[in-house]
Write a structure and sequence with these properties.
Layout (H helix, E strand, L loop, with lengths): L1 E3 L2 E4 L12 E2 L5 H4 L5 E6 L5 E6 L29 H13 L4 H10 L10 H9 L3 H4 L2
Parallel strand pairs: 2-3
Antiparallel strand pairs: 1-2, 1-4, 4-5
Amino acid sequence: EFEIRGKRYGMVLNDPIDDDPPADERKVRLIDVVGPKMRFIYRYDFGDGWEHEVKIERVLEPSPELKTPVCLAGEFACPPEDCGGVPGYEDLIAVLAGQDCEEKDEMLTWIGGPFDPLAFDIDAANKRLARLKRGFVNR
């Protein structure tokens, strides 16, 4: 979910025990609620508690040639799914940086092989963005 200027936007789940649901994300475009130099919060995986501060550096004019968003730059690898939030990720990095041991072998098997937390693959990021449905990008 996004929190922008104190208002939450996300999936509306029609949960009877949620007395403060977010505004329906399908009814708003990001460009309509943020602008250059703004900062807002993006929350991901409520079980692990990932919270990201996003800063809009600039807004570019749309290009008719582009059908999906494009990542222009980035830093660091995404943490593996369900790694336990920040504390679990810190533990994972410590184990992987340590001496070879059974726990390290188990972690490598769990994440599917070698992992470099400093790596960022812009081509892979853009391939994921290219798989988004056009309706998700332009309404």
